[in-house]
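User: Hi! I have a protein structure encoded as tokens and I'd like to know what sequence might fold into it. I'm fairly new to this, so please keep things simple.
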């Protein structure tokens, strides 16, 4: 993995986190490094990620319990 880069946005909220590929399972070992920027900036972005639905769920579950909405149709590609 390359170095994790944290770039605050130009607005009053948010930061972009770069240098990561969220589809790589070993990255979850580095998950705690995403928490501080989230707390400090209130919102974090991970641009240009190619996640499968399973990758997305695995990452989302690291943040806590999620509610999968079964009412709406699945998105394209899932």
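Assistant: Happy to help. Inverse folding works backwards from shape to sequence: for each of the 78 positions I chose a residue that suits the local structure. Here it is:
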């Amino acid at each position: 993995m390359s170095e994790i880069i944290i770039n605050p946005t130009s607005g009053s909220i948010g930061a972009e986190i770069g240098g990561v590929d969220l589809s790589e399972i070993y990255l979850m070992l580095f998950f705690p490094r995403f928490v501080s920027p989230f707390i400090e900036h209130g919102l974090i972005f991970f641009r240009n990620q190619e996640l499968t639905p399973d990758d997305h769920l695995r990452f989302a579950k690291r943040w806590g319990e999620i509610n999968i909405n079964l009412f709406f149709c699945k998105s394209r590609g899932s």
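A useful reference point when you look it over: The radius of gyration is 14 Å. Feel free to ask if any position seems puzzling.
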